[in-house]
């Protein structure tokens, strides 16, 4: 079955703050022609972050935005060399599942992304994540 969502993984990124991480993700999206305007991504992600925490489990956050600035629906898994302390004001985060959703996302694509996110709260997946099992993580994000 063909995936309804493009997926990518960026491993061991050296970002020390939310701003640096957002910049790296924007750069990646821009270089891969997946976004129309880099600056709009910062606005979209920060608006969502201001609504409440995007932490989904210990050390795992799911920053997301829904906008037509995205060329496609995209999931980007990012692992950092070191955690960003106080990601949401109280918790550290080291692993991120960026969900970049178009305004016209289909229900099947939304369900695929939901399934990906739910996978990351399973104990066996978290263990694999913490052990750096790239093969499993890349299989999960590919749907």
Automatic annotation (TrEMBL):
Return the protein name.
PTS sugar transporter subunit IIA
**Which PROSITE patterns does this entry report, sorted A to Z?**
PTS_EIIA_TYPE_2
Read off the Gene3D superfamilies from this record. Mannitol-specific EII, Chain A
Residue intervals of the PTS EIIA type-2 domain: 2-143
Q: Which GO terms describe its molecular function?
A: protein kinase activator activity
Q: Which keywords does this chain's UniProt record carry?
A: Sugar transport, Transport
Could you name the domain of life of the organism this protein comes from? Bacteria
| Alphabetized Pfam families for the sequence | PTS_EIIA_2 (PF00359)
Which species is this UniProt entry from?
Pediococcus acidilactici
